[in-house]
Amino acid sequence: MEVEGEEYFIDLLLYHRKLRCLVAIELKVGDFKPEYAGRCSST
Predict the structure, then answer these.
(1) Cα separation of 23 and 30, whole Å?
(2) pLDDT level of residue 43 (50, 70, 90 thresholds)
(3) What is the pLDDT of residue 28?
(4) By C-alpha distance, which of 7, 9, 4 is closest to 25?
(5) Burial label, 26 (beta-carbon count in 10 A; 0-12, 13-18, 19+)
(6) What is the 8-class DSSP label of residue 18?
(7) Neighbouring C-alpha atoms within 13 Å toward the C-beta of 17
(8) What percent of the chain has pLDDT over 70?
């Protein structure tokens, strides 16, 4: 996915039937850090 000229990679893309929207999920290796919530990162 490309946003403002930067390329991002999505690990999982799901469709939420009740909300009728797409949900993108990025999988991380290691412990969860609070700064991961709501953040996009490129790899």
Answers:
(1) 22
(2) very low
(3) 76
(4) 9
(5) middle
(6) T
(7) 0
(8) 84
Helix (H, G, I), strand (E, B) or coil at 35: helix
Paired strand residues for 3: 6
Give the 3-state secondary structure of residue 3: strand
Domain boundaries, the chain: 2-36
Instruction: Give the end-to-end CA distance of the chain in Å, rounded to a whole number.
Output: 12
Whether pLDDT at 14 is above 60: yes
Alpha carbon distance 29, 26 (integer Å): 10
Position of tokens 């797409």?
Answer: 22
- Global model pTM greater than 0.70: no
